[in-house]
Structure prediction request, 296 residues.
Amino acid sequence: MMGRMSDSSQLSSRPVSSAPVFPAPATSPQAQQQGDGGHPWSRYVALGDSFTEGIGDPEPASPGGHRGWADRVAEELSAGHPDFAYANLAIRGRLLQQIIDEQVDPCLDLKPDLITISAGGNDLIRPGGDPDALANTLDAAVGRLASEGATVVLFNGPDTVSTVLSPLRGKVAIYNENLRTVAARHDAVIADMWSLRQLAGSQYWDQDRLHFSPLGHHTIATMVLDALNVQHTLEPLSPKPLPEKTWRTARTEDFLWAREHLFPWVLRRLRHQSSGDGIQPKRPVPGPVFLPGQEL
Prediction:
């Protein structure tokens, strides 16, 4: 989970620990992806939290009521591949260790040849979140995911300079650099959200300022397909410029956001509750992918 803000705010953080020590990078060659419109994958499993579940991109026709970047990627990968199957095990609110404990083994049981994993964002926003320790934990999980020959796509975090999490920008940057080491060790593909500079625009974020909007999910899906070197039909979308806001309008929106989104989030933390409590994966079993509104 990452977030956007309309003006500066302060969150507490502590200095990060010294850099983690990883074993030497693997020497196997990078997986060769296809750029001719075809691709080698037939079974895709997505792991993660609310970001991968698709929160912020509501779609009543989609399983779980959300579409998201992973569904959009699967839709493109399934075109022209009638045997393509897709599962999504992500659950909102999950921390890194929960994702590993709850999703890695079920993922491997599904025998995928393409895996995406985005994890650690919910840990980084909590006091004491250590980007070095998190990367060490994720390293072992990515090693397991890659051990059976699947292509693994590993997400880094977006630049939080224009978000409610801007005080954590340094932690995110350190985590991202660690993830490049993890990816190199396990021959994984980096889905580079930090380089998506357009995500600084408010139109790319949901009203809760913590999740991406449909436009944001579309933009991220395009980046993932490009990272996989797969031809696709997604076109870049540019939102219309927003009108200038008065100071009073901006502060009113900030107040409403705090009341409707920030305070409930803080209250859940104090009560040791999660937005994912009682939620099940929206696509626990690999199956065919249909566009919203497409007849079965």
Remarks:
- DSSP finds eight helices and six strands in the chain.
- Residues 4-36 have pLDDT under 50 and may be disordered.
- The first helix runs from residue 50 to 53.
- The two ends are 32 Å apart (CA to CA).
